[in-house]
Design a protein that fits this description.
The longest helix is centred in the N-terminal third of the chain and has 44 residues. It is built from six helices and twelve strands. The protein has a six-stranded antiparallel β-sheet. Strands 6-5-4-3-2-12 form a six-stranded antiparallel β-sheet. The radius of gyration is 41 Å and the shape is globular. With 265 residues, it is α+β, with helices and mostly antiparallel strands. A hairpin with a 4-residue loop joins strand 10 and strand 11. The protein starts with 9 loop residues before the first helix and ends with a strand.
Amino acid sequence: MTASAPGPAPAAVDRGTRRRRALVLAFASLLVALAVVGVLVVASRVSGAEAADGPAPVATSAGAASAGAGAVAAPVAGSPADPASAPAEGQPVALAPIVAAWPEAYTVTGTKSEPLYVEHITSTRTGAAFSVTIDVVAQGDSPLGTQNSQVELGADGSIRWTGGCTKPAAECADDPALRGFLSEAAVLSAARRGFLPAEGVARTLHGHPVVCVSDAALHPDAPPAVASLDPCFSMSTGALLGHWSSASSAFVGPTLAEGLVDRAG
């Protein structure tokens, strides 16, 4: 038999293994150290860039609202569109500032129901011209006819009928007793002639703020056909929306029903 070569001594094997392990650990530590240094360098560059450029802008609700070209302006305090500052129900209010803020145009649509028919009413203003169209429809949707009426307000406060007048010729030329759905013209006439009532009364009709004006004060030279029935005008447009009865403490008579639309322009 041939004798085999003797193997390495156990102590030498242990020393070699420990040396290789130490080298591997040292190399791994070096790689970790290099990685940490790289991260710190990148972070410092990013921080420097942000410091130079300033903080990124933060969007806020106020900024977003002002940035939009079509943003809707908040209601102005004291205006009818601002519920928080709207006058309390039944509170006297100065009439002149309300009248001065009315727009030059409006469109109002609504209905007024009677026992046997319904009136579909469209009231408009365009500058000095006021118009109302009333389509009468019987039960079963049978049309009963249409009434059209128009007046024009003069620069001197005169009110001239331009269509549908059934009064004497003198009153059609200048009506001192204009009432009904055209009667914003009567309020403006009173303002131009210098006898606008000082106050009205704030009320709410179907969610619409209105100002009710004493009929007797608005028409001092033309007694009302129905006592204590005061016209009530939209705070926002000036259109007549209904009538308030002080005797019954309710809206009665020529008053639009719930669901009316009152729009400026």
